[in-house]
Structures are given as C-alpha cells and as structure tokens.
Amino acid sequence: MLTEQDLPELFSYRSAYREPADFDVFWKDTLAEARARQEATLDLTPVATGLETVDVFDAVFPGFDGHPVRGWLRMPRRRSGPLPAVVQFHGYGSGRGAPIDDLLWASAGYAHLLVDARGQGGAWAGGGGTPDPVGSGPAHPGFLTRGIEDRTTYVYRRIFTDAVRAVEALRGRADLVDPVKVAVVGPSQGGGIALAVAGLVPGLAAAHFQAPFLCDIRQATRLTDAEPYAEIVGYLAARRNLVEQTFETLAYFDGLAFARRATAPAWFSAGLRDEVCPPVTAIAAYHAYAGPKQLRLWEFNGHDAGGPEDLATALSAFGALLKTSSRPPGVPSPAPAS
C-alpha cells in the first residue's frame, strides 16, 4: 500500500518541489498572449434534452491561441437573475460527456459550466468535443507527455490556458452569472486543472479539489506505477537522457506552485488507498495552498476520494459562500485532517 505511514506522519509530509524562478513571468506572458489573440466570449446554443428542470446549452469559447473549446452550460430552468456559478473540469481521458450528464450543480441552483480538456474525450465516459490542433514531438501513448520537451509546447500549457479562459468567458456573461461568485471544481485531472485556475485567476469564490492530479509530480512518479503517471516513467525509460529536461518542463505545471498563489476558500480531499494520485501529493498541495483551506482524508477510499459523500461536503460549503447577498468573506479556520 501507498499509506504505510500512520496519519500524523503522513500529514506532516512536505514536498521538495522547487518552482522555476520565472514561473510567474511564464504564465503572465502565456495568458496575455491568449487574451491578445481574442476576447473571451461565451457562445451558447440551446440543446433539446427532455429535461424539465434544467436548461442545457452547447458552450463554445476561445482558448489557447484562439482555438475553440467546448463545454456544456447547465442552468436551473426557474431562475430570476444572475446565478452563482461552478466551473468544472473533468478527469483524465474523459470529456464533457452527454448533455444530460452531471446535473448536480445545476440542480442545486448554480450555473454549471463543464469544460472539455482539448484532445481528450476518447477514453471513457461520454466523450468530448474539442480537438487539439497542435502537434508534438515523440510522446508516450496517452496525453501526459505530449510536447513535454519544452514548456512552451507542453499540452497542459494549452489545457490550463483554456481553463482560465473558460472562467473569464463565463464571468463575461453577467446576464447569466454573478462574476464575483464563481467557483472551480474537479476530480483527479479536473482537480489539478482547477488548482491551476485557482492560482491564475484572482477573485474566485471557492474551490474543491478531489484527489488532484499533477501535484508534486516528481514524487508521484516515485510512488506509483499506475497510469497516467506511468506515462512519464515509460517516456523516460525510452528517453533516459531527458530526465532533468522533462522535470524542468513539468515544474511549470505542478499544482504546488499554483497552490502558493491561490486565495479562494478551498476544500481538498484524498483517498488513503489511492494508487493513481498518491495521497501525499494532495497533502503537499494542501500545505502549499495560500488561502483558507480544509482537507478530508478518506481512510478506506481510493481514487474516488470519498465520492458523493465528499461532493456533499463541497455542496454544503459552497452554499454558505456563494448563495449569500454579499461577496464571500472566506471560511473559518481550517479543520484538522481526518
């Protein structure tokens, strides 16, 4: 098992990750380039679903280099004005799925934008609708090593930029959403993307990171042989002279650096039996997080990180923060890990 330490020892873990000196400059320039390319607009087309309480829209906005990125915007049918919003990012290999999937947040009274990760959506669940028009050099099968030879070509530079643009585009629809009450959420890869957005977008109202991927990446490759981190291991087994170059690239995309810059009230969770995203990597991100935060460790769960029970915690917490008449003030002092 990955959790041979007792809980106090596990919780005391601190990562050896060191961020690049020009991390902020790299991301400032990347986002400025995307913003200069095209305004962040959100185009919506109603979708006929047969649902009686939720409206669904095919959503399109310009992402990295102006490339069109798709998602679903779901909203409660009975609404009288701008709503608090939740922007969700999905797990590795999945996509936005079908229009009638993922009805939780809209059913709870939020505008819910579920965003594609470009180039994914062919592995499981309902699939995606966003291609990645950018190619890459030699890569291990999967997505994790595409363009990894350089920080400017790495696939997650495009995916993280798309995610930031999704929030900006949704905030621009003040006819539909309250721009100061926007939260980001996601499981696994989606949690890693949400964490990047939390570190890059100021003024978010809340965040939920469930078993976040892409945190403390080098340590994760030492602890697990499971996919997707095994893609990095396989790539470096074949390209063994590129080890340091590869981790120099990945340092610009590690969730710990984004966590240090994030200030929105946040809820983290991890399963102590998670062999996909080792729990110490979520703990490392939690400790690095600059804003108000809480962490729930699920002793007998794996990569589901508490599943619907954990989502229920986020649902309750978000209600207190996003469904008030004023700008969210934050959360109480963080609870101890449990």
TrEMBL record:
The UniProt entry, under InterPro entries, shows: AB_hydrolase_fold, AXE1_dom, CE7
List the source organism: Streptomyces cynarae
Source species, domain of life:
Bacteria
- Report the Gene3D superfamilies cross-referenced here: alpha/beta hydrolase
**Annotated ranges, domain Acetyl xylan esterase:** 6-307
This chain belongs to which protein, by name? Acetylxylan esterase
